[in-house]
């Protein structure tokens, strides 16, 4: 069991020297073997800060991130080396993430060299076969400019898989690809996580791609997780108004079937000085007086958690003289 718990982390300067924001705040989840977990949210919601913190590349200002039961703060040099082998990343932009001066073989050799792994040629060929770049001879000596966008992303996936990791962190892995290539890469990722016994955290702003590969989805808004649910449950019956708006924004393929849209008003508020209250309240069609207090992230059903006052037991809440929950 891998467990990541993150509280009040990710203070980030964002160019304004003295203004710090909590880019990720009070986020808590675990990732089990073979599980594929999605993190979805608009750009600026804290997804990338979360990813960098999980990789140990951002210093957290509090909380714990446990890997195989041990917190990062207890890691020595050897632990970090093992961690760097066990946790691999697939980046968003295959056009940027491959060195234009290196052939496919040279790109895939680097992680093997760093971790002192032998039988490199055989391993490279097997991994190219795994990501369906066949026959390997056709691709092994090519440079990135001799590959299509989809082939480049397959090389990035091969680089992530070649060390036989336990966890893959995928950061918008198909957003730079055309729609037909996206479908092929998503299918491949889904197949590989199943066959290779790998867990994955899949981060994206695109709910349709996240729902294709993930068992469970975490919806993030302004640094906090506002809803967590198994994928199909979330798609069928979202509980948080923001999750509902995201789902209603997915285009419906059948033009005769119309989905009721919940168009969000306003834009995401400035993350500086957010203070108390639900962070979504300025855009929420269901806003109530009590939403000026921060909702707790509570389990509302088995496997489902929501941070929204709509899902509290309001009978037990204190009320003002008008009868409004306070
Ligand atoms: Fe809307 Fe209130 Fe729920 Fe926030 S807590 S999402 S403002 S109903």
From TrEMBL:
Keywords recorded for this protein, A-Z: ATP-binding, Nucleotide-binding, Transport
GO MF, one example: ATP hydrolysis activity
Name of the protein described by the UniProt record: ATP-binding cassette domain-containing protein
UniProt organism field: Haloferax litoreum
Region annotation (Disordered) ranges: 253-272
Keyword DNA-binding: no
SUPFAM superfamilies recorded: P-loop containing nucleoside triphosphate hydrolases
Example of a GO biological process term: transmembrane transport
